Amino acid sequence: MSEAKKSLLVIGAGIAGITAALEAAETGAEVVLIEREATIGGRVLRLNNYFPKMCPPSCGMEINIRRLERNPRIRVLTRSKVTAAETGDGGWSVEITTEPAWVKANCTACGDCESACTTEIDDPHNLGMSKTKAIRLPHPSAWPKIYTFDRAAVSDDEAKKIAEACTYDAVDLDAQETTQTLEFGAVVVATGWKPYPLEKLEELGGDLDDVVANVQMERMASASGPTGGVIRKPSNGEAPARVAFVQCAGSRDVNHLNYCSGVCCLASLKQARYVKEQLPDAEVTMYYIDRRTPGRNEDFLLGSAELEGVTLTKGKVGRIEKSNGGLKLHVEDVENEVILEAEADLVVLATGMVPNAVDDDLAVFTRKDDDGFVLDDLEAGVTVAGVARRPEDVAASVRDATGAAARAMVAAGRRA
Ligand SMILES: Cc1cc2nc3c(=O)[nH]c(=O)nc-3n(C[C@H](O)[C@H](O)[C@H](O)COP(=O)(O)OP(=O)(O)OC[C@H]3O[C@@H](n4cnc5c(N)ncnc54)[C@H](O)[C@@H]3O)c2cc1C
User: Fold this and answer.
1) What class does CATH assign to 197-351?
2) Which of 139, 209, 282, 414 is the 20 to 30 A CA-CA neighbour of 127?
3) Which atom in ligand 1 lies closest to the alpha carbon of residue 352?
């Protein structure tokens, strides 16, 4: 088999893509790992803590980064996407386009450029809940540890001042987009997910200030988040006395997402713990259709449900509106067949995970299901890992990624 046919392209450097790349490279394959963002790690780096162990996601990521740095067989291309691909002759020929690197690899992350920058933008890491400088370290766990520059957000004059402030000459205002075509034996798709948008959940108060999505709650609880880790009502900054978690917000619903995202019950139970740790007197209610915490995660459910002031109510929330300075929830109590009205100060909607591939038409996504999740195509040498394949938690994504790497290498061998 030629070297090109043994090599693997991994698309998406979230936890699944990083794992697939590492596992393949550690068994001898040459791997190119591409990521469209400036840094790797994907969605997990926006979480505060992981269930079930409640450790920060940066812990696991540091180990993976050490493995990546030590492995000469993996090439990581950030700010990169597949722009064309064709298969034939037992492999894939893939065009990869990399956005201009306005900041070069010799950046020391000293921060002088940031001090010279006056333009602020919505912080993508904090899901737009706070502002950040146009040139910045994207987040504390960023790898590569290089500043990123939203060049289009600043004027030419300001860009020059920012470049002049860098004593290492690391800001490159002449940077260009680059394109390269590479040959691979197989492809692992690990393009992950995005949250179902709040804007589509108007009936559940998605447009109200004190109704937030579960992903926003993760940022609010995080020390590097928009409130420095303080859980509060976005409308006025006050501590909420009553917090409601609304499960299946837009999931298992023919008008929104047909499927269950599998992790939202555990995510809300985890977030109920965040609330009780900070606000021990707060009343926390979780409204659910079914409590889905498979396997050993049942222990996590029981541990959270036992906390004083945490109530789990079987009921589907149909409508949320403003009322008496707070929020009113209309809940169908399915066990007693009555409609209940409940009040809350802060509502967290457990929105589901939408595959990024749903509106991405890369040639390498040869097969997708009706919901946009990508399917393995062993004949074409394409395997899928993590949430690109189906909604799952980190532990399952990692297991899945090991399998996807192995299947891809087998597929490459068969096609060669
Ligand atoms: C509210 C919430 C809380 C959660 N909490 C937990 C928890 O506590 N514990 C737990 O185990 N799980 C948790 N999860 C689940 C966890 O987030 C996922 O299991 C995990 O993100 C899956 O990783 P992934 O690599 O498949 O996808 P992602 O993290 O989405 O990574 C995919 C990567 O691919 C990149 N990408 C996408 N398209 C392209 C493209 N075309 N080209 C190049 N790159 C691309 C993206 O930029 C991203 O970096 C939670 C989920 C939610 C919604």
Assistant:
1) alpha beta
2) 282
3) 53
